[in-house]
Amino acid sequence: MKKMLSFLSLALVVLAFVSCSKNSPEGVVQEYVACIQAGQYEEAVDLFYFKKTLTDKDKEQYASLLREKMAKDMDKRGSITGVEITNVEMAEDGNSAKVDYTLKYGDGSADSEKSTVVKVDGKWKLDTGK
Questions:
Q1: Whether 83 contacts 101, CB under 8 Å
Q2: Burial class (CB in 10 A: 0-12, 13-18, 19+), 26
Q3: Which CATH code for domain 24-127?
Q4: Which of 22, 56, 84, 97 is the most buried (most CB within 10 A)?
Q5: H or E element that contains 118
Q6: What mean pLDDT is reported for the chain?
Q7: What is the DSSP string of 45-104?
Q8: Which residue ranges of the chain lie beneath pLDDT 50?
Q9: Domain boundaries in the chain?
Q10: For residue 75, what pLDDT is reported?
């Protein structure tokens, strides 16, 4: 009985680590939100997939646009206090997924969001469609 409990405990710990992996559909969304919370907009842009390679100038422009958009939201509602992944729908081929999540703000409000993520060279990225 003790062996079985030990095995189950170990299995739960392993499952917790695997489900929290940054290299997963939900992990990339969580990492993106963490970057926004920390004001690391350039790092947030690195989590996006673009069909063409971005120049440094392109990356700076996207980071600036993201900073402006998020600043407006956070000025009105307070900073992002958390994210809750509500659903992950994996494509049959395992190379894309739709992630539903809720962003929580400091004023107590929340927004339901959806993102499409794609696996590129073994890493999950937020799909820009561009």
A1: yes
A2: buried
A3: 3.10.450.50
A4: 97
A5: strand 110-120
A6: 85
A7: HTTEE-SSPPPHHHHHHHHHHHHHHHHHHHHHH--EEEEEEEEEEE-TTSSEEEEEEEEE
A8: 1-20
A9: 24-127
A10: 87
